[in-house]
Amino acid sequence: MMRPRFPIITLVAMSFLAILTVRHLRAARIEAGPASEVARRTPVLVELFTSEGCSSCPPADALLEKLDKSQPVGSADLVVLSEHVDYWNDIGWKDPYSSHQFSVRQGDYALRFNLESPYTPQMVVDGDTELVGSDERRAIQVIKNTIKTAKLPVVLSSIHREGDKTLAVHIEAGPSDASGRRAPAQVWIALADNSVQSSVRGGENSGRTLKHVAVVRNLTLVGTVDNAGTFSKDITVNTGNTDPRDLRVIAIVQERGVGKVLGVGSGLVSN
Question: Which range marks the domain in which residue 196 is found?
Fold first, then answer.
């Protein structure tokens, strides 16, 4: 093989330029990496029905926090919600974060999944699969299966406070890339305290200090997806019983009747 005939100085100059080019490309990849990775991740809604009055629930609460912080499935963006039911409130401790609305929502899921009755702790992934809320192995498996399905894009923007007890946000959803007939879908917005802690003084968890993440305080129906699979609206929601210093805002597009979650997006409000 013939060797190229270049002066030594030319070779040195070309080598120096090549090193600079490689460094530049490597730096560009590092800067672009996180954005590209986020764009590839599929949002997955993970709901945990729990109660401070239930002695089986703290391990599930801890698992939800772990899923939220560690994001163990690389191609999934886990959007978690802790929904405290109220049917444990009559055995010695009234859960301060409980709401009958979440008991009703869980009851609707129980009917959909043909369960004999609701139970805690229960995890529901994307409105489509239910499991025992403390079963980490099963949860990871279900999440991995869920991300195989394409999602409706959901984006929250212009999140800001309007007064002491009102939050404004713009929600944009769709359009869907899927063809064919679409099931009727509703758009919900959830306000959740980012992180809370409670000292329990009665019931099955008496004497324990319990921690929770993404505790839903307000879940409101704000509209429906149109025939083109899109939704665009400026909305306001009441923040009266939330922690306004550290608040998560989650938009959920879900088939009617606590059906399959078609898309989910989230944002954070903090001081």
Answer: 42-270
